[in-house]
Amino acid sequence: MEDLVTERLVLHPLSVMEAERVAAGEPDGEDRWAPGYPADGDMVGARRFLTTCAITGDPQPFGAYEIRRREDGRAVGGLGFHGAPDEDRAVTIGYGLIPSAQGRGYASEALRELLRFARSRGITRVDGDADHDNVASHRVMGAAGMRLVSEDAELRYFRITWPEVS
């Protein structure tokens, strides 16, 4: 699986070995992590990816990605799919950045690329969610074209849909 590249970022698909290091928060000599990476959310995402790999096999290209800055190659966050597409070709996504990388548009840029990639792979719907008080994440999903579709006592749910490609 090749990296996805945007103007300022590289979205690097994690291998199982890389995900194990992220989940443990223990880099090896080849990892280039910015201070504060991985954050708790990155470790949770890596563990979810590893669980999926153990149960159903590696879901790539619908797995976990590390967000790296192109300028210095340092990992500043993660994003990815919560697993392979379902029978309706729908997926769920998640993402996060370390605090020092927030507020620069990286999350919106990364999510737009991941959505573009999903659509190019025949995905018809992408779902995401965020806590009510996570206004920044609401803005990120909105900026990437996702729309608020519902909410409950804990979360707001966002979605983007595309017509099925035959």
TrEMBL record:
<dbReference type="GO" id="GO:0005737">
    <property type="term" value="C:cytoplasm"/>
</dbReference>
<keyword id="KW-0808">Transferase</keyword>
<dbReference type="InterPro" id="IPR000182">
    <property type="entry name" value="GNAT_dom"/>
</dbReference>
<dbReference type="InterPro" id="IPR016181">
    <property type="entry name" value="Acyl_CoA_acyltransferase"/>
</dbReference>
<dbReference type="GO" id="GO:0008999">
    <property type="term" value="F:protein-N-terminal-alanine acetyltransferase activity"/>
</dbReference>
<dbReference type="InterPro" id="IPR051908">
    <property type="entry name" value="Ribosomal_N-acetyltransferase"/>
</dbReference>
<protein>
    <submittedName>
        <fullName>GNAT family N-acetyltransferase</fullName>
    </submittedName>
</protein>
<dbReference type="Pfam" id="PF13302">
    <property type="entry name" value="Acetyltransf_3"/>
</dbReference>
<dbReference type="GO" id="GO:1990189">
    <property type="term" value="F:protein N-terminal-serine acetyltransferase activity"/>
</dbReference>
<feature type="domain" description="N-acetyltransferase">
    <location>
        <begin position="9"/>
        <end position="163"/>
    </location>
</feature>
